[in-house]
Amino acid sequence: MRPPREAVVRWEVALLAGVVLLGLLLRIWNVDQNLPLVYNIDESARFVPDAASYFDTRLGFRELVNPPGMMGLLALVDQVWFRPQGLSPSEGLAQHPTQAYLLGRLVVVALSTAAIPVLYLAGRQLLGRIAAMVAAGLLAVAFLPVAYSRLALSDGPTVLFLALGILGAAWILRDGGRRGFVTVGLAVGLAAGFKYNAGIVLLVGLAAAALRIPSDGRGPVLRASLLMGAVALVSFLIADPYVLIDPHEMWRAIEYQQRWASGGRYVGEPMTNGFAFYAWAASWGIGWLPLLAAVAGAALLIRRRWQVAVLLLPMVALYLLVMGGQDRFFARWLLPIVPVMCLTAGFAVQEAVGLLRGRATDGPRAGWRRPAALAAAAALALALAGQSLVHSAHSVAIAGRADTRTVLREWMLDHVPARDGVVLESMSPLRWMPTFDGRHEWWSLTRWSIYHSIPAVQRRDRKRYPRQTRTKAGFSSWVQILYPKLIDEFERYGYCWVVTSSYQAGRAARTPGLVPQAVRYYRELARRGTLVWQVNPFSTDNPSGRPYGPLSAPVRYQIDRQATSYELDYERSGPMVSVYRLRGGRCADPGPVVPDAPVD
Question: For the ArnT-like N-terminal domain, which residue ranges apply (predicted)?
Answer without folding.
Answer: 21-209
